[in-house]
Specification:
There is one protein chain. The chain contains 16 helices and no strands. It has helices at about 5-10, 15-20, 20-40, 45-70, 70-80, 85, 90-110, 125-145, 150-165, 180-200, 210-230, 230-235, 245-270, 275-300, 300-310, 310-320. The chain is mainly α. α4 (about 45-70) runs parallel beside α8 (about 125-145), α7 (about 90-110) packs antiparallel against α8 (about 125-145) and α13 (about 245-270) runs antiparallel to α14 (about 275-300). It has a single domain (about 15-320), classed as Tetracycline Repressor, domain 2, CATH 1.10.357.140. The longest helix has 26 residues, at about 275-300.
Length: about 325
């Protein structure tokens, strides 16, 4: 990229979309939509649902922006064409956006329980989950990213994003306990383990990765997928399952995992940066399909189709904006 093109692109929409990894935000939206379904079986009440979806997208995007801020020295060496090292987006403006999105995400989550008189969940849980998610985001960017804990902290961020949607589960005030049952935690933890595997897999995506590291990341991804696959056996009598789940669902889950496995094995065979990046992108994009598969278990099929529909704008936007 020439200096002239950098100046022309300064502050442009494309630069901001690249900074925010805009295609990936659809996966965060899918997580919250799925979590809401696991908790309630539908997207009612609607206003808290919309607020939590916006909160999840804001917090995810904030984490991406702050990650690039903390990585700017590395990106100057390895990815100088990116918005911050190229100067197309200023550090000051990116910092304001990241901090502002963190604050907005927490405010939206805290407001969700009070936005509808039909809300019968905990009045404090959505805001509390958002606050813990902010702490996890900051911990990853500031301290954990370059340690062996980094992928697991990143995975916890994704699990908390799903739990943000699940924070609307009805609560029994007489017990005061968190309203999450085994099926909630199975999905959230499985999703978190899957994303921890993706993060581990892509830690050296800008260069040549070690096969052992790639294999370890793939193992974690498979483990997360297997945890989510246990959902039908854990759905309890009080859950909101609407349709019978048979072996067809397990077959569907396996088929959805094939593209990820194909890209991952190709990267392990030849661990160059391009193959690793393609595998990471495929794994990230598959989160929408995983969320849609979960929705099939806990709600009518139209909800799963709606979540799966997020894949189209993500793919279209991904033609111009990188995801890794």
């Amino acid at each position: 990229m020439t200096e002239t093109s950098k100046r022309r692109g300064r502050g442009g929409l494309l630069a901001w979309l690249q900074l925010c990894r805009a295609p990936n935000a659809f996966t965060a939206v899918a997580d919250v939509m799925m979590g809401y379904l696991v908790a309630r079986g539908n997207w009612e009440p609607a206003i808290p649902f919309v607020l939590l979806v916006l909160a999840g997208a804001a917090l995810y995007t904030a984490g991406i922006v702050l990650n690039d801020l903390f990585d700017i020295d590395i990106d100057r060496r390895e990815r100088p064409e990116r918005p911050l090292p190229s100067g197309r987006v200023s550090v000051r403006a990116a910092r304001r956006l990241g901090v502002g999105l963190l604050a907005a995400g927490c405010a939206l989550a805290a407001a969700a329980p009070r936005a509808s008189p039909a809300f019968d969940g905990s009045p404090w849980l959505p805001g509390a989950v958002a606050a813990v998610l902010v702490a996890a985001i900051v911990a990853y960017d500031v301290a954990a990213k370059d340690t062996w804990l980094g992928p697991f902290v990143m995975g916890s961020c994704r699990a908390l994003n799903a739990l943000l949607g699940m924070s609307v589960a009805s609560i029994d005030d007489s017990t005061g306990r968190l309203p999450w049952a085994a099926e909630h935690l199975c999905v959230a933890i499985g999703l978190g383990v899957y994303v921890a595997g993706i993060t581990w897999f892509g830690r050296s995506e800008a260069g040549t990765s070690r096969r052992a590291r790639l294999a370890a990341g793939l193992t974690l991804m498979i483990a997360g997928w297997v945890l989510v696959a246990r959902l039908p056996s854990l759905v309890s009598p009080h859950a909101v399952a609407r349709i019978p789940v048979t072996e067809v669902w397990y077959l569907l889950l396996a088929l959805l995992g094939i593209p990820v496995l194909r890209r991952a094995f190709a990267a392990i065979t030849r661990p160059d940066s391009r193959r690793v990046q393609l595998a990471v992108r495929q794994a990230i994009w598959s989160i929408i399909w995983l969320d849609a598969a979960v929705a099939i278990v806990v709600a009518p099929p139209v909800f799963a189709l709606t979540i799966a529909g997020l894949f189209l704008p993500m793919i279209l936007l991904g033609r111009w904006v990188y995801s890794t």
